[in-house]
Structure to design on (225 residues):
């Protein structure tokens, strides 16, 4: 436990469902010198580990290396605090997830205005040690890119098609993708499962209440998992 206040996120929801978030790190920035034994045990027994930029870089790297040693896949979300990602960390994770803006920042300013530009920018990161990149493109869906090629996934339109609140949609997408992969599903199925989850998420207000059930996701995706 850290003798500081818990971290907070203050969310400003705009009319079209878009959002801006102010993050107050608090206890999220207070970590011991070494990973706690309980955390190491949890990492080694996990089906997958998801990391993000709201905890210190040294912790992300330590967790990634611990998971790598245990052959546990690691997904790194570049969202959160805008900061540099070291080549060491990039090469220690299984998959890097990011949007167009984050992709431009991570590549030193490469253009990411079009889908093809995003693909080229993502490929440049493969040469730095990234194994796979999952690029989210908002209304244009998402692309999974690796040395084997690329798989595109369109947005799935469901329900009223009205965007109520995009808060947590990216987290929902990545979490659903990680779950499907951990269950051994192929990449196309995992992407469709994730797209269905995010499409349901944005139609409900609130980051936690908007997380859909597995049954609802499967119904929208037309899958049986």
């Amino acid at each position: 436990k850290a003798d500081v206040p818990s971290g907070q996120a203050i969310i400003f929801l705009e009319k079209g469902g878009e959002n801006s978030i102010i993050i107050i790190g608090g206890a999220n920035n207070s970590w011991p010198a070494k990973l706690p034994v309980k955390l190491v045990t949890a990492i080694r027994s996990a089906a997958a580990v998801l990391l993000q930029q709201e905890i210190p870089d040294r912790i992300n790297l330590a967790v990634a290396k611990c998971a790598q040693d245990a052959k546990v896949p690691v997904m790194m979300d570049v969202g959160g605090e805008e900061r540099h990602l070291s080549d060491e960390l990039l090469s220690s994770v299984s998959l890097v997830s990011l949007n167009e803006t984050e992709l431009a920042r991570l590549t030193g300013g490469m253009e990411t205005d079009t889908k093809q530009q995003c693909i080229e920018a993502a490929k440049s990161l493969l040469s730095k040690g990234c194994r796979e990149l999952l690029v989210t493109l908002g209304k244009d869906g998402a692309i999974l890119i690796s040395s084997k090629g690329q798989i595109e996934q369109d947005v799935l339109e469901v329900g009223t098609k009205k965007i109520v609140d995009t808060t947590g949609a990216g987290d929902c997408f990545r979490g659903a993708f990680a779950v499907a992969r951990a269950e051994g599903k192929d990449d196309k199925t995992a992407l469709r499962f994730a797209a269905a989850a995010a499409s349901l998420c944005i139609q409900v207000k609130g980051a936690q209440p908007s997380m859909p059930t597995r049954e609802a996701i499967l119904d929208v995706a037309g899958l049986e998992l």
